Structure formats: structure tokens, C-alpha cells
Amino acid sequence: xxxxxxxxxxxxxxxxxxxxxxxxxxxxxxxxxxxxxxxxxxxxxxxxxxxxxxxxxxxxxxxxxxxxxxxxxxxxxxxxxxxxxxxxxxxxxxxxxxxxxxxxxxxxxxxxxxxxxxxxxxxxxxxxxxxxxxxxxxxxxxxxxxxxxxxxxxxxxxxxxxxxxxxxxxxxxxxxxxxxxxxxxxxxxxxxxxxxxxxxxxxxxxxxxxxxxxxxxxxxxxxxxxxxxxxxxxxxxxxxxxxxxxxxxxxxxxxxxxxxxxxxxxxxxxxxxxxxxxxxxxxxxxxxxxxxxxxxxxxxxxxxxxxxxxxxxxxxxxxxxxxxxxxxxxxxxxxxxxxxxxxxxxxxxxxxxxxxxxxx
Length: 360
Description:
single chain; alpha/beta; Nucleotidyltransferase, domain 5; 2 domains; 5-stranded mixed beta sheet; 13 helices; globular
């Protein structure tokens, strides 16, 4: 039976798990205080600190390092990659240490995996990394020559949902066409067709959400950027963490909003219903890629637990295709299943080649 170490570093925590086949032996989230992280100038500098915590955690759970078959990590902010598995290699680690697409805690996952796998002489992979980019060229074009639409976002969870649907239909992922809406702190909508994510409406241009502002009137955004005292940092906070439900209702928890609505708060209902309609509009917006010939619309993420949200979305979009709900997200299991597909020969791991690493 395969035994996999799963790594998923976040900004203030490192989630790890050990899976034996499809079943977890344990899942744990190691939290990191601001004081613990303060000595590190950048994310890459946290590598040794987090690696040692991972090793200590395995010892506490009586997991011998030499009992591991493989390591699978959340993919960091590499240059654009395809969906699926990539073997962790020197080029990948160099890119994440020296020229990541952005600073993000997930960057250290591959570094830890590379170190431990090298010591143990076992394979290490990332799966459905954050920077998966499979949009068709026609879907990248915008009205400004140096700005392009991109597919960066909730690829891990949405692809896991699409593959689950394919399995339930006794079909290959390559043979289905589904629209997947990830409903969480950020909301995104993407289209899976012939084994690729050919279009993606991410949380900077799509529906507003519990935390994100979503797509905004551009002239108003430009005006706000030039108001006295406006800074880049302030504007980014406005659209990334202080927008959506937080801006309107002072909470990022959809359950709190539904309690407000149950209590008769008409403004809360108007805002919540507007968010739901925005999700439905964006589902409709992505369907013309395939002339509306969609097998199913999948709703996933934490907010998909809400029957109010999912039933309202279904009311709006069921004319396109049947709606299937897969509430929640299990990134650790999605990573484990991805690794198992490679180990079992169902999928081939790709090799990452850094476009920036100096060659001798």
C-alpha cells in the first residue's frame, strides 16, 4: 500500500497529512505565530523552519520517514504550468527560491518535498499548482495589449470536482465538459473541456464574494486609485480582503449573513442575492465557449454547503445543464489522489523547466 506525505503550506500554518492509499492516517495543521515568522525576510527563508516542524510532527504520529512511498505538495507560484502532476526537480526549487511569480507560503512546499525526497530516494510531486494556465489563446485577449486574462486560481479543488464527476459518470475527465464554480472566500468559475481548463473567470474579475470585490466599474476604480492618500496596498486590501460581503455587511461568513436574513434584514438579503446572481451570470458567461453544450454545472467550496445558495444558483442556470453540488473542499485528499494516479501509472508526471534559471 502506498504511503504519501502531503504538504500544504499556508501563510500562518503548514497543513500536512499522511495517506495510506486513499485513506488518511492523520491530518494536522501546524500554526505559526507572527513572532515565529518575523525573523524571515521572505517566504523562501522559512523553508528550514517549516521542514523541521514537519519532521517533528511525523515523529509525534509515529510515522517513520523511511516508510513513505512519495511526497506530494501544493504547487507554489511558478511560471505558467499545465494541470496535473509535476515531478519536483532542481529547476522548480530554483524558480521558487529565486524568481517566484509572487511571494506565497506554498512556495516552500516543493522545497521541503525536494529535500526529504532526496534523502529518502523517493519521488516528490506537486499537483494542480496555483499557476496552472490552460486558457485558449482567444480567452486571454483583453482590450489592452499588455494585459491578459489568466487562469490562476482554484484549480486544485475545481479539477478534483470535475474528475469526481467524470468518475461518477464512468467517463474519462478528457471526455466531459463541465462548468465548475468554486464558492469560498474568493469565488471563481472555470470550464473543463477535453481534459483542459480552457476558460477561467477568477476572483479579480468575476463575482464578488465574502472577501473579494470581484469585477468592478473600471472608471470608478481608476478614479479611486488617484484619490488623495490612496496607495497600492490600500487598493489591494479593498479588492482582496475588504470587499464583497465584508464591505457590505461586516462579515466574511456566509452563515452569519443567512442568520441576518432569517432575522428579517432586507439589506443583507439584497446583497446576498446579488452575490448569488453574479455567480449565476458568470456561469452563463463562460458557457458560449462550447456553444452551451455542457454536461453539468458543478458547485463546490465551503459556501456550497448552503442549500439557499445552491438552490438559487440552480434556479438561474439549470437551463444550461444539470447542477451537481460537491460541498466543501479537501485539498489534502485532492493532492493525495493526484499523487496516487501517478504512482499507479494512470497519469504521467511532467518535468518543470525554469525559463529563468541560468544555464552553464
